[in-house]
From TrEMBL:
Annotated keywords: Cytoplasm, Glycosyltransferase, Purine salvage, Transferase
InterPro entries: Ade_phspho_trans, PRTase-like, PRTase_dom, UPRTase/APRTase
Record protein name field: Adenine phosphoribosyltransferase
Species in which this protein is naturally found: Paenibacillus motobuensis
Function: Catalyzes a salvage reaction resulting in the formation of AMP, that is energically less costly than de novo synthesis.
Pathway(s) served: Purine metabolism; AMP biosynthesis via salvage pathway; AMP from adenine: step 1/1
Protein family membership: Belongs to the purine/pyrimidine phosphoribosyltransferase family.
Main subcellular location: cytoplasm
GO MF annotation list: glycosyltransferase activity
CDD domains linked: PRTases_typeI (cd06223)
EC number, UniProt record: 2.4.2.7
SUPFAM superfamilies xrefs: PRTase-like
Amino acid sequence: MDLKPYIRVIPDFPQPGISFKDITTLLNDGEKYKEAINAIKEMVSELEIDVIAGPEARGFVVGAPLAYALGVGFVPIRKSGKLPYETIEVGYDLEYGKDKLAMHKDAIKPGQNVLIADDLLATGGTIATSVNLVRELGGNVVGTAFLIELSELNGRAKLPDINVFSLAKYDY
Ligand SMILES: O=P(O)(O)OC[C@H]1O[C@H](OP(=O)(O)OP(=O)(O)O)[C@H](O)[C@@H]1O
Ligand SMILES: Nc1ncnc2[nH]cnc12
């Protein structure tokens, strides 16, 4: 599908120089949201997936419906301090800031095939950190899937040995 007509681009948000890709306009359109999730489902149809993991917050609105559509479980990767049980945590840099991501220690069973889903691949910091967390728990990362990829930020370079699927590409 052609996703771009449903993405709103906001210049200089949240800071000067960032061209923000706003997916709320897609989420607000039930038919197109469903079409986008089904298109990702189609892109990853060759993979054997036991569970989907997605980083807070926008990874939830892609990962959870994808998990539902595939009939597999969903594991939230959350920002530090949000998960109630024992966690592992890793720090990372963003296109506009720094943060820490966490997972429950028992969220992935060793050897499970995990697809990591998010709305957008920019510098790759979030997804590379997510990959590290899943691997630390013994998961086998079979791929990563996004609505949007910002090609010039070269997030793929942080995922050298991993399948990367995206529905729409922008330069930055
Ligand atoms: O490839 P990167 O440079 O890491 O950037 C991409 C990440 O940035 C955004 O999340 P953000 O941390 O802004 O959090 P949010 O989903 O809670 O808005 C986006 O949803 C991705 O997770
Ligand atoms: N340019 C961008 N637009 C939307 N979300 C982002 N996350 C990181 N960079 C982003």
